[in-house]
Amino acid sequence: MSKICFLIPDGVGIRNYLYSDLFKLLNESGHEVVIWHALAQEVVTLSTEINGFAPQQKELKVFNEDFLVQILKESTTYARLKYNIGLTGNPTIMQNWHDKMGSTKRKILIRLAEFFGKQIKDYKGIEGTEKLYFSQLRKTAAYTQYRADLKEMNPDLLFCTHQRYPGAAYALEAAKDLGITTATAIFSWDNLPKARLLVRSDFYTVWSDYMKEELMFYYPEISEDQVEITGTPQFDFYKNIAAIKSREEFAEEFGLNASKSWVCFSGSDSKTSPYDAAYLEDVAAALQNESGVQLIFRQVPVEGVERYADVLKKYPNIKNLNPIWHKGEFWNQFYPYPEDITHLVNLSFHCATVVNIGSTMALDFSWFDSPGLYLNYDHTGNQEWRTEDIYNFQHFRSMGDWDAVAWANSPGEIRERILQIIDSPDKLAKDRRLWLKKIVGQLEGPSSATRISEFLTHKLNLKPTSKV
Fold first, then answer.
1. Phi, then psi, of 120 in degrees rounded to 5
2. Which residue among 110, 167, 178, 356 is least enclosed by CB atoms within 10 Å?
3. Is-contact 228 455, C-beta < 8 A?
């Protein structure tokens, strides 16, 4: 029996791993599953109920990052963003750099990182500084603790579910130093141009050929045989036809009118879409006299509806359906309940379209062949996030010349576009399924959980291929 340890550093891995079929498949194949985490115990209990067995657990102790480690990490991040602009000719990449808000210590850290990052002139300099970073983190209390934890657990393979979490780097370096094979999932399709690969592992799982090419493009030191295309479990749930309720049943459960066409406005967080409430108001105003259309609002799960309160009060035609999540005091304390997965699947299946500003939800809705509608105009002349910049982000270049989503270029176009989608969905965003397949990978065949299970089983017998 082989032991596979899943490092789940924060809540983003819950849906894809604890609630998917992956653990069950590995358990049925005779593998021992350990989860190394700092999650609420309720999540593990829910996972146990879903998968039919209780995985072993190990507490992931959380440490404050050493200041020098942070400087080295952020300096290389800044340098990589600069380098990626040169690779792509896309200046919007630098918008992924930190803002200047926060404590005095944080402001000093960011300024120092910018200064040192500007001194790194080429890719050899980036790699050299990253080697210093990995060397320095081995001198920290976090590394010492994680090395001891790994010795105690003694896994054959350590799988990190999120490449962006800073603390994961300490754990993966400790694992490699102990001769434990390591693998890391690239969490999202838009992460790679943003210099958000904060760990190095022996293997990487990605969604698609597109992501594999991106990974090797931005990180040429990673070889092709280190990258495995597995898809992502978050789209496995859309394959589960049994999760789809009848329109009448879903309408009764959530107070909707089954006879109307449903339009979903999906909210974004206040940092990346500070004018979200104004955009929701535009959509509500455009549809308020359309008696055959019901507007559904689903806010971003990690925030409340406070900033939308005036709009929700002013427009009773908005039906607010809260995500079924546990609300925490801090961002990493938010997590979904399994019911939210079914809720999102049914919204994607039954709604005619999803409206937002550049959200990945357009891909979710494309799974059931529903066009997404992107709002493509600004509310003020000097707003912080301009749509001109948003839709020029590097990950949107994946659309190429495809007609992948519908566009509303002014508030006056919203009603017309939505009615067009309802009446003739095949006439807009005609290439939406091509875009979905490019980003997500295989839409048919074995589930992503099955592919990951087979990949991990195969790699268990291989020795690590890379050392930092």
1. -85, 110
2. 178
3. yes
Tens of pLDDT, residue by residue over 188-227, are 999 999 998 989 999 999 999 999 999 999 999 999 999 9
Q: What is the pLDDT of residues 134-166, one digit of tens each?
A: 999 999 999 999 999 999 999 999 999 999 888
The span from the CA of 118 to the CA of 116, in Å, is 5
262 CB-near residues (< 8 Å, 6+ apart): 256, 293, 294, 296, 347, 350, 351, 352
- Return the amino acid letter for 382: N
For 149, the token pair is 């934890």
- Measured over the CA atoms of residue 75, residue 271, residue 387 and residue 186, the dihedral's sign is positive
Q: Quick one: which of 167, 139, 171 has its CA closest to 155?
A: 171
State the Cα–Cα distance between residues 383 and 458, nearest whole angstrom. Answer: 50
Cα(116)–Cα(216) distance, integer angstroms: 25
CB burial class (10 A; 0-12, 13-18, 19+) of residue 454?
middle
E strand or H helix at 183:
strand 181-185
pLDDT at 468: 40
Please tell me the distance from the alpha carbon of residue 3 to that of residue 151, in angstroms, as a whole number: 13
Q: Which of 293, 276, 233 is nearest to 421 (CA)?
A: 293
Q: What is the DSSP string of 375-441?
A: E---SSTT-SS-HHHHTTSGGGGGGTT---SEEE-SHHHHHHHHHHHHH-GGGSSTTHHHHHHHHH-
- The residue with tokens 């035609």 is 317
Helix (H) or strand (E) holding 362: helix 361-367
Look up residue 344 and give its amino acid: L
Q: Which parts of the chain register pLDDT below 50?
A: 466-468
CA distance 284 to 279: 9
**Which residues lie below 8 Å from residue 74, measured CB to CB, with a gap of 6+?**
98, 109, 110, 113, 117
429 within 8 A of 200, measured Cβ to Cβ: no
Q: Give the C-alpha separation, 6 to 19, whole Å.
A: 13
For residue 191, CA distances in Å to 93, 271, 273 come to 11, 17, 18
Residue 71 token pair: 């400087």
- What does the pLDDT read at residue 420? 98
